[in-house]
């Protein structure tokens, strides 16, 4: 496979040298154990007690490999472990757990003291005055601060939000909310905003700071917000509050928890390991393996550095922070119950690897690669910023070496991240080059599973990943998402057309290498499966299965999309440039394309296969797809999620090839056992629809209008439309005040005559998060805006 031929050499050369070192010099092993002593020699029989003490001995070890072997137990770090070139000298170093022993590295400190009862189910213990207390862990699991609304694990946003969180009537009840926090979604659901409460400015208003966590700033979402760390809101089991003036920590015990026999700890550190060298003198040949990293502070208030013109700001910090390194290897670790990011490759890094890690239940990103803006030529940082051609550095590529490159993310299980921050990703890439993201399983994330924030500088390979249950708490995004607001980019399509007509090289100044997305499986319920947004250019997209959200190409240049299977959705071309040079060919789509402001159709849109025949008819009205076909593609077992092709599939006539169904996601046996699978979504339009079919829409049962009785009971003039048969309490349909007997007549102006029309319209519009219904309700025609999430 060509991909391997390209990548493998730069990933293995250093390790071949390391192996050579192993064969020449004897290995030094230094043991650490919770019951050890730092006065010991560090042997297996006389281990050291602290990891920091063991690391300090590396520089004086004999030449050759050094293994720091941690014995089973929990190591509560009093301060961040810092590793520099001076610490490692020229040694090849591995920090590892002893075989088959569980080693926990925690940024928390154990809590000791007796609990005494207070009123209203509260208990308290004295921990000292004026402490910083950010996370309280009960048997290693984070508990919620006193909050409103109370924690609801079934709620989609922030585990519970309310428009009443900041009502004046509620604020009046707070005696001293200073030190509290406000968390909210971005008004457009493009991520999140967070504020620290500084005090009250009157009886019913607040003084606060923050809101810098998004590079497309906006007011807070009116509905999706909550407050925490306020004494008066301490009213539910599991909640806690620390009074810094009195020094007492208060808690309402979680149900079933005996305070006298339960272990509690309080987070102390933002980072567990801080590994930092420079491009001139990097940290080299370090491996961290087999550890569980946990117990760090939340860092959402540190998240304020803008990342070029993407929607992101970032905090350069993580449980494992890596900068100025070569040949770093992070393998088989667990990252859990962290307040911020798990792994962060910052600025200069070469040939770093993150392999077979399990990352879950953390506040921020899974694995991030973020270069230095100083390496970018003519950088701009806000969406609305622009520069003239005369102001622009027209030299292609990076300005310096201070960015991650030739790095690999493989066989990692990443899920349930972004528990605090929502503008996050399982893998985030910005201002980097040649990052290989392969065979990872990523799910249950609030925004993208994999995100590329800009076109600097390409060469990335995204392959054989399984990415699903994405964009769970936000909107207008993708399971895979990218931006390309590079140095030449302008919000005006016409302005870019004019520039590129005169200077055709402009789109290639930053994206100096193509980006490949191949052989992945993507699923997004509230956006697109693959979303190439503003300016994303020079992509090669092939052999992907898109399970639900479709594939979107917004304005950009030189994208080639072929041999992708787009299930239960379609191709979404948005506002293309006049000379885009885009190609969309030999793909399977389900329904008609959903273009928005497309004035031309690139180099080629043809030889595609439409499952729904009307889709092909509509495409030809756009003067595309003269050689395309429609029909049943003959998937092997679509009802079980197997979209391989039977030998007699008609799509082979177009040159479309089958896609291996067993290549997606993690490979290691242990991670495969733990990993979930994406939802099985049989192809809707391969089902034989009859008038009596009852299907589910927004949790309600819906069907075609079949009988005169159904028509009469609803007051319909004919049998066009879709009838709501049953609307269960708690369903999304019920929350939108839809009722049994209502008839849906149109969605966003598209007529809905039957179930096929309903689901076609939904596929084309669901990314918006809301639609406008034309509804027959109590024999009156109404227009109603319906929230889809």
Task: Note the topology.
Blueprint: H1 2-24, E1 28-32, H2 51-56, E2 66-70, E3 73-76, E4 81-83, H3 85-88, E5 93-97, E6 103-106, E7 108-111, E8 116-117, E9 123-126, E10 136-138, E11 141-143, E12 147-148, H4 168-171, E13 181-186, E14 192-200, E15 206-210, E16 220-228, E17 240-243, E18 248-251, E19 264-267, E20 273-276, E21 283-284, E22 286-289, E23 291-294, E24 305-306, E25 313-314, E26 320-326, E27 329-331, E28 334-338, E29 343-350, E30 353-355, E31 358-362, E32 367-370, E33 404-410, E34 413-415, E35 425-430, E36 432-438, E37 441-443, E38 448-452, E39 457-458, E40 461-463, E41 466-470, E42 478-482, H5 493-502, E43 515-518, E44 521-524, E45 528-532, E46 539-542, E47 545-546, E48 551-553, E49 560-562, E50 565-566, E51 571-573, E52 583-585, E53 588-589, E54 604-606, E55 609-610, H6 613-621, E56 629-630, E57 635-637, E58 642-645, H7 669-674, E59 694-697, E60 700-704, H8 708-714, E61 722-726, H9 732-735, E62 743-747, E63 750-751, H10 755-765, E64 770-777, E65 780-787
Parallel strand pairs: 1-2, 2-5, 3-6, 4-20, 5-22, 6-23, 20-26, 21-26, 22-27, 23-28, 26-29, 27-30, 28-31, 29-32, 29-33, 30-33, 31-34, 32-35, 33-36, 34-37, 35-38, 36-39, 36-40, 37-41, 38-42, 40-43, 41-44, 42-45, 43-46, 44-47, 45-48, 46-49, 47-50, 48-51, 49-52, 52-54, 53-55, 55-56
Antiparallel strand pairs: 7-19, 8-9, 9-18, 10-11, 10-19, 12-16, 13-14, 13-16, 14-15, 17-18, 24-25, 57-58, 59-60, 60-61, 61-62, 62-63, 62-64, 64-65
